[in-house]
Amino acid sequence: xxxxxxxxxxxxxxxxxxxxxxxxxxxxxxxxxxxxxxxxxxxxxxxxxxxxxxxxxxxxxxxxxxxxx
Length: 69
What we know:
The chain has helices spanning 10-20, 25-32, 36-50, 55-64. By secondary structure, it is mainly α. It comes from Rhizobium esperanzae. This is DNA-binding CsgD family transcriptional regulator. Keywords: DNA-binding, Transcription, Transcription regulation.
């Protein structure tokens, strides 16, 4: 099966890293100095990129693909 590595932006990686640390969308927004809407947009794009529907599946995919250590 052909596999293409997910393409994520540096900001999406920051959001994903904070998610993996257990931060909520509101906490991530405060840390990054952006709106909750922006954070949720990044999360939605990440879910699309990894083809998952739940936050927990996104986090698991990030570790599985070695995006997060």
